[in-house]
Amino acid sequence: MAIEVRIPTILRTYTGGAKAVDAEGATLDELISNLESLHPGLKDRLIDQGNLRRFVNVYLNDEDVRFLGGLGTPVSDGDTVTVLPAVAGG
After folding, report:
1. pLDDT in tens, 6-17
2. Domains in the chain and their CATH numbers?
3. Which of 37, 45, 38, 31 is nearest to 1 (CA)?
4. What CA–CA distance (Å, rounded) separates 26 from 88?
5. E strand or H helix at 82
């Protein structure tokens, strides 16, 4: 099962510069664990104390996963997961 994960510029050092990578898993948590095995260090940038980091937004097919079930959100072959760091400023 291949799921495309779109990686923001700031995290591409973990993916060798790739804008998107493929990963596998039945849930977002499994997908992130698979990403970690393929691209070490990435999981620590996405998860803190068992939850998504506060300033990292993750979307499954353009839907915020925080409203879909968080790390337990089911993912399927052909889905697209987009990781976006929250931007603040003024």
Report:
1. 999 999 999 999
2. 3-85 (3.10.20.30)
3. 31
4. 32
5. strand 80-85
Sort 47 into a burial class: Cβ within 10 Å, 0-12 / 13-18 / 19+: middle
Rounded to two decimals, the pTM is: 0.88
The phi-psi region of residue 88 (left if phi > 0; otherwise alpha if psi is between -120 and 50; otherwise beta) is beta
pLDDT digits (tens, 9 = 90+) for 57-90: 999 999 999 999 999 999 999 999 999 988 765 5
Q: Which amino acid is at 82?
A: T
DSSP 18: -
